[in-house]
Task: inverse folding
């Protein structure tokens, strides 16, 4: 067994989402400090000049008692203004990396920002506006459904929260869980349950159940404030359906993370348990900030990264600077009421852009033992027999429907001669297509048998080399070499024949398209006139 490692240098992708002003901010009359210039540029605390006229000339008034505006320009991979929708955010964040996830790369999407900035809304959303997590899971299962004929896909999920520096399973009732590091698996949470959903409905139900168990308490800044960091992880395993000597298995992990919001006790008026919660949240986010600063430092050489300063940063070790494609969604408020929080969020988001990851596709090569070859060959023969049975069933259905459909062609239709001509052409084309398909399947079977024979001869060759002395090897392996040469010649011949069949198949397809175009011209409003029902089924049954 071996692992493919195609190292790719990749910068963390950072996007910013500005939420609309809430009722409290509008009522108090706070001005806006976040101005979205375009899809990539945002200005924080922009400069505003008050213009007046003196004797018909413009003059700029400057109140020296007012604080100087920062007028800072930030450039990100994407900037979403107050009118952006959940779907727009998903289309520009998680959707592009879903294909990477299916190709075996680890991926992470995390929402970062102050309390009440819109992180949980972005990640989870509501019943009418589903968030990034829901849209991601739906799109993932849609993609899996598209490749189900070629690959066997299986998923497993876990959902945990970090609350007051303790890890808790959100899908089952459990006590605090411990974190350890494994040389092969990376960061592992001991005792965390894995669930294997069979459909998108089941996985969404697990997500809903976990959200209900998540710790939430109202604060002055947010009536439904999330008081814990939530980490939802999906593990995807893919394997080719077709049996072969070398099996490739892709195993990847996607983490969807909703961080708790940073907050100041003076702003939230937190006391007692809420104050302790806020302190622990800020401590873990401070540790996260230190990790971001250390990873973004381009001058660092073998610098220590303080992952172990909190449970959160230990869990995010793989996602920050490791073998993972990561997207950070920085959520901010546009109001001057959250001036410091917005400024700090933008600073950390700007630093995170410099974090580099070393990506590699997690592909396992499973080399089957020689004893498995017979089993593989039998599975391929079963598949060929199944295809032959489908062709036989089609022939029987065609014979049954031919008599019934003759009546339709004899109806008093001015186009019946043309339709009859197309009927004959299509029958010939589909019959030819069947013959090509059968010949192609036969060549596939012969190629597989040839490959298995070659592997067997190679194994015998190696055994002879191991058992015989050096002076007798050439004589002992002469017969095997001759047999291998014959098998190679036959393999090349079969491959050439198979390519010829594929060319004929493509030519047949082109003819079908031409006939379809002519039939549309014959029909009304571009519709194809009705011919025998069985001909409509040909394309789907023998492709």
Result:
């Amino acid at each position: 067994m071996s692992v493919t490692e195609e190292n790719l240098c990749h910068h963390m992708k950072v996007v910013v989402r500005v939420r609309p002003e809430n009722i409290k901010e509008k009522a108090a009359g706070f001005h806006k400090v976040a101005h979205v210039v375009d899809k990539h540029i945002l200005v924080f605390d922009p400069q505003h000049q008050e213009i007046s006229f003196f004797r018909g000339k413009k003059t700029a008034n400057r109140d020296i008692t007012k604080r100087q505006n920062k007028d800072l320009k930030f450039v990100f991979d994407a900037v979403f203004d107050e009118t952006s929708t959940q779907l727009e955010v998903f289309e520009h964040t998680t959707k592009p990396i879903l294909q990477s996830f299916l190709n075996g790369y680890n991926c992470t999407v995390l929402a970062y920002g102050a309390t009440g900035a819109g992180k949980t809304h972005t990640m989870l959303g509501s019943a009418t506006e589903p968030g990034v997590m829901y849209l991601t899971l739906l799109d993932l299962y849609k993609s899996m459904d598209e490749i189900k004929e070629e690959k066997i896909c299986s998923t497993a999920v876990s959902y945990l929260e970090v609350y007051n520096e303790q890890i808790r399973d959100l899908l089952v009732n459990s006590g605090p869980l411990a974190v350890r590091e494994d040389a092969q698996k990376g960061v592992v949470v001991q005792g965390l349950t894995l669930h294997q959903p069979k459909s998108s409905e089941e996985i969404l139900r697990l997500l809903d159940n976990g959200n209900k168990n998540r710790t939430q308490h109202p604060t002055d800044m947010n009536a439904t404030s999330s008081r814990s960091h939530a980490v939802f992880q999906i593990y995807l395993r893919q394997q080719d359906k077709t049996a072969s000597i070398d099996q490739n298995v892709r195993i990847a992990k996607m983490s969807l993370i909703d961080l708790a919001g940073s907050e100041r006790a003076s702003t939230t008026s937190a006391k007692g348990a809420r104050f302790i919660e806020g302190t622990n949240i800020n401590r873990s986010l401070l540790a996260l900030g230190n990790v971001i600063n250390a990873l973004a430092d381009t001058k660092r050489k073998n610098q220590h990264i303080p992952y172990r300063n909190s449970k959160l940063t230990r869990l995010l070790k793989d996602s920050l600077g490791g073998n993972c494609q990561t997207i950070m969604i920085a959520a901010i408020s546009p109001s001057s009421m959250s001036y410091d929080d917005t400024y700090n969020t933008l600073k950390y988001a700007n630093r995170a852009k410099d974090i580099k990851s070393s990506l590699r596709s997690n592909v396992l090569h499973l080399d089957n033992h020689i004893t498995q070859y017979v089993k593989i060959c039998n599975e391929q023969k079963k598949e060929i027999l199944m295809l032959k049975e489908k062709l036989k069933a089609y022939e029987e259905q065609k014979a049954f429907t031919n008599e019934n459909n003759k009546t339709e062609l004899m109806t008093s239709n001015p186009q019946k001669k043309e339709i009859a001509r197309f009927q004959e052409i299509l029958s010939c084309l589909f019959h030819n297509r069947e013959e090509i398909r059968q010949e192609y399947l036969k060549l596939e079977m012969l190629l597989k048998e040839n490959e298995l024979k070659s592997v067997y001869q190679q194994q015998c060759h190696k055994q002879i080399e191991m058992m015989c002395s050096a002076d007798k090897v050439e004589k002992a392996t002469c017969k095997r070499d001759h047999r291998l040469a014959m098998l190679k010649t036959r393999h090349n011949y079969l491959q050439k024949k198979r390519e010829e069949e594929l060319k004929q198949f493509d030519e047949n397809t082109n003819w079908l398209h031409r006939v379809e175009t002519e039939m549309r011209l014959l029909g009304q409003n571009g519709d194809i006139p009705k011919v025998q029902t069985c001909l409509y089924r040909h394309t789907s049954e023998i492709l």
Notes: Confidence is low (pLDDT under 50) at residues 1-6, 533-537.
